[in-house]
Write a structure and sequence with these properties.
With about 475 residues, the chain is mostly helical. It is built from 20 helices and 12 strands. Among the domains are: about 50 residues, Helicase, Ruva Protein, domain 3 (Orthogonal Bundle), CATH 1.10.8; about 90 residues, Arc Repressor Mutant, subunit A (Orthogonal Bundle), CATH 1.10.10.
Length: about 475
């Protein structure tokens, strides 16, 4: 397929600003963006804010924040549908003029009654075309009723498309009724806004969630009525939570920014989302550049993709190891500041980062580990009882004396520990573990000599002297 893609490729991401950018939306945005990149095309961002009641500025900001965090930059937009109302009216007028749309004056009560009657007759509830011009001939529109505009769906035949993910889909026109395209206040409904925009914006591939698959035949019919080009469609399967259930607020971290908050790196999230329902052989770890080179719509699985937090953690761990210390330090600096931890008087954060970044899976875990360098730790009483014993105490005392004068670097520090081990006839863990407990409150840390070096003489002595 990729070889025969028509140029220029133009894709779009068209979120409704009724909530944050969730994982599913971020994946749709990533796939649309990557498809445009792969084909040297353009990626358009469009905010579908016609649901005025539910759309908020906070949601717009949250969506833009999420896209910016992931570096999914758009070539055009953001376009706002509420700023394009005259254009929808213009296209609606064309449909009216060509007899593809008509005003419908049926009241809500009347429509409810109609559907109820259909249900009692065991028929599928649908609009019965009562205001189609041929059915309404001679009838005067009721006073004071503001009509809605309906699209006159073809009565016969099928509407079909070759979905780039799901394959051929065919729907009988008699399954579709005359949908409302303009509300009585002149605001377009979702299906109408989408087709006018996809047409005006020259969209060649519509990549979106498969919750829209039922809308596609309606959209194709309207485009056909306008003799507008029909884009290709790719409907992405839904994402299930770790528990195999539909991803929802119940799963907690469904906003991409929550992953940022939780200490995931954007390259891990992008890599993870890239593999969510798409594959390139057995490749699991790839950069965003590599992803853009490989990405196609042929290798998207039509079945639901399942979220796997463990795998995301694993990828994050991988990218943390590769990440530049300075960058991680800048991030951890902010995380510590938010906890009220000041770096003053403590070791250089970058050095501390390099000591610990191989041992953690998230930036929050890194911040947790590094906090001990900057705030006084209170080792748990059980740990003290277990490790600060008659056996270890003399060794720790000797060390605190040696640490006054030893050259403060790894080799000399290691030699000092070995000297004390020899004098006290203790083994390495018998000295190093109590030392770790007193210095960090933990029994496991990076190599003790490296830890001492980074922590610095002053802080090490202060902590030791509280106990020995
Ligand atoms: N605004 C729609 C949504 O957020 C998406 C529309 C589309 O991609 O066609 O679900």
């Amino acid at each position: 397929m990729s070889a025969s893609v028509r140029a220029p490729v133009r894709t779009r991401f068209a979120p409704s600003p009724t909530g944050f950018l969730h994982i599913g939306g971020a994946r749709t945005a990533l796939f649309s963006w990557a498809y445009a990149k792969r084909h040297g095309g353009q990626f358009v961002l469009r905010i579908e804010d016609t649901d005025v009641e539910r759309s908020t500025q906070a949601a717009i900001d949250a969506i833009l924040d999420g896209m910016r965090w992931l570096d999914l930059s758009w070539d055009e937009g953001p376009f706002f549908q509420m700023e394009r109302l005259p254009r929808y009216q213009e296209v609606a007028d064309r449909l009216i003029a060509s007899n593809h749309a008509y005003w419908c004056y049926a009241s809500r009560e009347e429509l409810d009654e109609m559907r109820e009657a259909q249900r009692t007759r065991n028929e599928k509830p649908r609009y019965d075309g009562r205001w189609r011009p041929e059915n309404a001939a001679g009838r005067t529109p009721p006073e004071g009723v503001k009509p809605v505009l309906r699209f006159r769906n073809p009565d016969d035949g099928v509407v079909a498309w070759d979905d780039l993910v799901k394959g051929r889909i065919e729907i009988e026109n008699k399954e579709l009724d005359d949908l409302v395209i303009l509300r009585s206040d002149g605001v377009p409904t979702y299906n109408f806004g989408v087709i006018v925009d996809d047409w005006d914006m020259g969209i060649t591939q519509v990549i979106r969630g498969d919750d829209h698959v039922n809308n596609t035949p309606r959209q194709i019919n309207i485009l056909n009525a306008l003799s507008a080009p029909v884009p290709q469609y790719a409907h992405l399967s839904m994402i299930l939570g770790d528990d195999g259930q539909k991803l929802s607020k119940r799963h907690g971290a469904v906003s991409v920014m929550q992953y940022h908050e939780d200490g995931y790196l954007k390259e891990a999230v992008l890599n993870y989302l890239g593999r969510l329902g798409w594959s390139h052989g057995d490749e699991e770890v790839f950069s965003i550049e590599q992803f853009c080179e490989w990405f196609d719509l042929d290798h998207i699985t039509p079945s639901a993709a399942q979220f796997n937090t463990e795998k995301l953690r694993w990828l994050n761990q991988h990218y943390l190891k590769l990440a530049d210390d300075l960058r991680l330090a800048a991030d951890v600096d902010q995380r510590l500041a938010r906890r009220g931890v000041s770096l003053e008087g403590g070791p250089d954060l970058e050095r501390a980062v390099s000591l610990y970044k191989d041992r953690v899976a998230t930036l929050n875990e890194l911040a947790d580990a590094l906090e001990v360098f900057y705030v006084d730790v209170e080792p748990a009483r059980e740990l003290l009882e277990q490790h600060l014993t008659d056996l270890s105490r003399p060794a720790l005392e000797r060390l605190s004396v040696l640490f006054e004068t030893v050259a403060w670097e790894k080799t000399a520090l290691s030699a000092a520990i070995k000297e004390v081990m020899a004098q006290t006839k203790l083994k390495m863990p018998q000295v190093a573990i109590p030392l770790r407990v007193l210095l960090t409150g933990q029994t496991q840390t990076p190599g003790i000599d490296a830890l001492l070096e980074v922590m610095g003489r002053k802080r090490v002595l202060a902590r030791l002297k509280r106990f020995v």
